[in-house]
């Protein structure tokens, strides 16, 4: 009976009850009093022509980068959130880019004779070219890998791509072993869904596997109010925490100061699906961190105390 009630509550939750694409939602009124919102943008396929419902074109990605740069943003990763935004210059404000699933068009190699090159039309190349020319925008994005297919599509280059991404300052995140939806996956299967990818990452990255500690939940949802955050936080691989920060896809920009005051908040960071939202809509959000003098190096977020 309790199980049934919990299931019904989950179905009715505005965060979990959606089956249709997530649309723009205004933030909680309290968020506008807490201007510590960090937009976390989510992309999937980046290709010409556009691939599928969640895809965007290469031109669209480039245009988004230009508009976000002009709006004064600075690219960060999960490490920067834990470090209290230490790298963000005082005259810029933080923004996070994420790419889910590990599609080949995100990071593609092409062969020219015996040489291997990065495809100039893949998402990584578009980011690299833009950030080389615009150092004020910073550099960085997180690629969340699900192991239901070959990560980035080219079996022979998986190890090279993972290591090159980390060398270039990008982050790699966990998107589970088989793209598991935690809303329906039995809890006894969660550990395997989260740890098996770590074993596979470890084969390609060795010690650098410790750099993988972020998860994006496939389907964008994660059970709320039932202790799921504490449960997933307890998983270990080689004696380290496997998940320290978790990302939803809930059509929301999270006010970090408020959210990260609770242990659960670290596992419920909102993201916007950019196949559904425009940069203009992102900029209309009331709780986004403003540009302006910051009280100190870590304002408004403190370093995370483990
Ligand atoms: Zn996914």
Question: What descriptive keywords fit this protein?
Answer:
TIM Barrel; 6-stranded parallel sheet; alpha/beta; two-stranded antiparallel sheet; single chain; 306 residues; binds zinc ion; 9 helices; disordered N terminus
In short:
By secondary structure, the protein is of the alpha/beta class.
Architecture overview:
It is a single chain. By secondary structure, the chain is of the alpha/beta class. The chain has a single domain (36-283), classed as Glycoside hydrolase/deacetylase (TIM Barrel, Alpha-Beta Barrel). The chain has 9 helices and 14 strands. α2 packs parallel to α4 (123-133). The chain is globular and about 55 Å long. Bound molecules: zinc ion. Zinc ion (ZN) binds at residues 100-101, 146, 175, 179, 218.
